[in-house]
Design brief:
Layout (H helix, E strand, L loop, with lengths): L2 E6 L2 E6 L5 H22 L4 H72 L6
Antiparallel strand pairs: 1-2
Organism: Devosia rhodophyticola
Protein name: Cell division protein ZapA
Pfam families: ZapA (PF05164)
């Protein structure tokens, strides 16, 4: 199993990860370090453990907010899907109605054409 060295709050940690996940783990560690450094700048030195816990909670807060946004987006997608199905159903009904009207019009035109043919004097050659 591959190992990578990450740095959080100025301290290096060796971590194992799955093959091919090294860059991903390094990126996550870098993002977490940015969170820790941001808290350190905002609050000051409050001890490594407390700072790390606060950064972890802040990251989880962002995660929970993202989960709420994802849930809201899923609900919107579901609603749009239902609306789309309603529109398809209406379109299908309108297409069927139009087809029926066109069929009726074609029958009437054919009846008119037959009546004209029947009433026209026969021509001799």
């Amino acid at each position: 199993m591959p190992e990578v060295n990450v740095e959080i709050n100025g301290r290096k940690y060796r971590m194992a990860c799955e093959e091919g996940q090294q860059e991903h783990l390094l990126g996550l560690a870098q993002r977490f370090d940015v969170q820790v450094e941001g808290l350190k700048e905002a609050i000051g030195e409050i001890g490594d453990n407390r700072l790390t816990v606060m950064a972890g909670i802040a990251v989880l807060d962002e995660l929970v907010e993202a989960e709420h946004q994802i849930s809201a987006l899923k609900a919107q997608v579901s609603e749009l899907g239902r609306d789309g199905q309603k529109m398809r159903d209406k379109t299908t009904a309108l297409e069927q109605k139009l087809a029926n009207k066109l069929g009726d019009a074609a029958q009437k035109l054919e009846a008119v054409a037959n009546a004209i043919d029947a009433s026209a004097p026969a021509t001799q050659n």
